[in-house]
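Worked Example 4.2. Consider the chain below.
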Amino acid sequence: MMKRSIFILLTLAIGSITMLNSCDKPAGEGGTSTIKGKIYVKEYNSNFTILQSEHFGMEERVYIIYGDGDFYDDDLRTSYDGTYEFRNLRKGSYRVFTYTEDSTMNQVLYPGGVYAIIDTVQITDDNQTIELPTITIYK
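Applying the procedure from the previous section yields the following structure tokens:
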């Protein structure tokens, strides 16, 4: 009887450990990591021949996709100095993007004259801060 009780307890313990390991949460909020970066803006005249100004972009929209999704999961606006931060992220794959006007004015490649600039990043550890390269957009 004692051997059977030990066997049952051991089986339950192993099952519990296996279940805990298989419950890894997908990419998204609820973690301790951060993805951050900056947006830089180059503003041209209407036919993109003369650069009128360039600066870090305040109030620019930045989006993030958690995992393999097709639609953005969260968005925010940049601060006064063009910085953005997506905080409290779990381990996993992320895509961060923003939109830019097409400075080549190639309507065949970019109908509507706008396209997304996308950075893909992998968070592999807790408490990780990943700084993406500065994204330059055109207006």
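Residues 32 and 126 are 6 Å apart (CA to CA). The two ends are 78 Å apart (CA to CA). Compare this with Example 4.1 before moving on.
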